[in-house]
Amino acid sequence: MINKIIMSGFVCLLCSAISAQNININLQSRENTEVSPLVKEKVEEYAAKINVIIQEEKRMMEAELAVLQAKHPAQNDFETQKAAIADRYSEKIDARIEALGFDLDSVIQKQVRYSLLNSDAKSDEEIKANLLKKFQATKNLTGYFSYGIMMLTNNLPDNVLDENIGYSNNLEFGLKYNYQFSRTSAWGFTSGIGFSWRTVRLENNKIFAKDPILDVNVVDYGGNTSKSKLRTGYLMVPVGLQYNFSKIKNAGMDIQYRSYSDGFRIAAQMYGGVKMSSNNIVRGNGDDYRHRENFQVNPFIYGAQLTFSYNDLSLFVKKDFSNFFEKGAFNNDKALVIGLALGL
Asked: Of 106, 256, 317, 325, which sees the most CB atoms within 10 A?
């Protein structure tokens, strides 16, 4: 009887938990899962059957006790016979509950399967198929946003641009394509498309201008500048490889996988870009203007990038192999960008 009471209490508690809240099981930081509908149905059905048995036996016991009480036995005799009746009905309840054949191990196994797969799979073949589907090689598109400090480097003596360049930056966002070579591969192919805005700022009251033969140059503003910058937008396409240092994990049923987007990763890429537009923006105590013209910024750029990532945060170094300006006085300057990127 004690075992049945404990079992009944467990069933009631489980039903209460199902009604009051979701049961969550974490698996390798993946999404939380709820109680299996099949498990919920089985437990509620079993609890309902137990309640029916108890109520039926309770009514019969109360009727028998009423008959006994109508005979007006002595108090001691009544208590003795009442205890015997209660024991008899308790044994009947035990026998009827045991006859229901509730398989607790089977119910627990179903919940574990559901927590792993979010599915009430019944056969091993179906379970393995679901695992293969859930833990397949990564093939997806993810968003990213990056910001970096930009420098113009060259191997020549300082020129007028080197002497007057201020804080410059590169702002970029876009989509990254991820292709893991296999479920357990540490290697993957990366590509995508992005929009990049490169801004070169000048200090010391200097501005960008064109000389009579349309070459770009740095000249005096003739007053005090509050803003002097050349901003160029590019459409960028990177192509490269990524290596993931995370360990191979076991999903069960002899199925192994390696997380492609989590943990520490290194990626090496080549990139190319096509210029969309250039804007020369000047603000000061003289003329203010925004010239959207050709300031000899290179219409095509290419270079290499090295990225160190941990989960969604990345540190990158980007170096152009092409000149920043297509021609003119600064034809040996190349962009070097160091910054952070955030996966979205």
From this structure: 325
Question: Do 139 and 91 belong together in one domain?
Answer: no
Q: What is the pLDDT of residues 8-17, one digit of tens each?
A: 444 444 444 4
The reply to whether 312 and 255 lie within a common domain is yes
Q: Quickly list DSSP for 169-233.
A: EEEEEEEEEEEESSTT-SEEEEEEEEEEEEEEEB-TTEEEEE-TT--EEEEE-SS-EEEEEEEEE
The two structure tokens encoding residue 73: 């036995």
CA angle 271, 275, 278 (to 5 degrees): 135
List of residues 6+ apart from 235 with CB closer than 8 A: 193, 194, 195, 196, 273, 274, 276
C-beta of residue 241 within 8 angstroms of C-beta of residue 188 = yes
What is the C-alpha to C-alpha distance for residues 155 and 162, in angstroms, rounded to an integer?
11
Task: Say which residues have a Cβ less than 8 Å from residue 220's Cβ, sequence separation at least 6.
Answer: 205, 206, 207
Instruction: Enter the tokens of residue 35.
Output: 């109680």
Sequence-distant (≥ 6) Cβ neighbours of residue 203 within 8 angstroms:
164, 165, 166, 228
Overall domain count for the chain: 2
Q: Kindly state whether residues 228 and 314 are assigned to the same domain.
A: yes
Under a CB-based contact definition with an 8 Å cutoff, are residues 224 and 205 in contact?
yes
Can you give the pTM of this predicted structure? 0.64
- Rounded CA separation 119/133 (Å): 12
Q: What is the dihedral of CA 68, 72, 78, 84, to 10 degrees?
A: -20
Residues 6 or more apart whose Cβ sits within 8 Å of residue 271: 236, 237, 238, 239, 302, 303, 304, 305, 318
Of residues 144, 147, 191, 193, the one with CA closest to residue 168: 147
Do 217 and 235 belong together in one domain?
yes
What values do phi and psi take at 35, rounded to 5? Answer: -70, 135
Cα–Cα separations (whole angstroms), residue 1 to 13, 89, 93, 215, 317: 18, 11, 9, 98, 72
- The domain of 224 spans 135-343
- Residue range 228-267, pLDDT digits in tens: 999 999 999 999 999 999 999 887 778 889 988 889 999 9
